[in-house]
Amino acid sequence: EIMERQSITGQKLRQEVKKIIDAVRETEFCSCPKPSSNGLCTHCLRRILVDRLCDKGLSAALCTSKWKHTKQIPGGTHEYVELMAATPGRKKQVPFLIELEFRDQFEMAKACDEYRKLVSQLPEFYIGKPEYLSAIVRVLCNAAKRSMKEKKIYMGPWRKRSFMEMKWSKSFEKSKSFDESLSTSSLPSPVKGHESCMHSSTSLAVVVT
């Protein structure tokens, strides 16, 4: 049900991103010193995707979420793409999150049938609003917890919802700040957490057509 929640803007973005990715994958696009053995370098693919989207007049950025090591969770970083777009009915630009390794984030070697079925329904990459991604993470992490309990396997902190959401925390924070500003004031409020996004374009966000 969550996966079916697609706005018109989101659908057009998915079509555009898929077109770009399919075209890039037909070329030798990886420029890393040690190219991936399978030729599917998402590191380079993300950068090319941002450049192509910006060439089309969209405001896309490469973002990196970082979190420190604590007693509860290991530290780490995660890279993804964020795009700002105008949507019908809203004056403010809305962040759309693009995760090229979406299904891979939830793969588990030892999992129950219920969990495997849920993961199989996930698309290869995610393109949509942060709040929908948060809902998907909640469902998958709850299923992972049940799977671990059924298999009597320890559930590492990196499988928990709090950890998973850190990977896209910057976009989650921005989405929340947009909603709060709309409900409390007509004036634009400062957006926290965007300093980790490296903008590749200064063009204004537009509706995808």
UniProtKB/TrEMBL annotation:
GO terms for molecular function: zinc ion binding. This is SWIM-type domain-containing protein. Residues 186-209 are annotated as: Disordered. The keyword Thylakoid does not apply. Keywords: Metal-binding, Zinc, Zinc-finger. It comes from the Eukaryota. NCBIfam families: A_thal_3542. Pfam families: PDDEXK_6. Residues 15-52 form the SWIM-type domain. The keyword Zinc applies. Residues 198-209 have a biased composition (Polar residues).
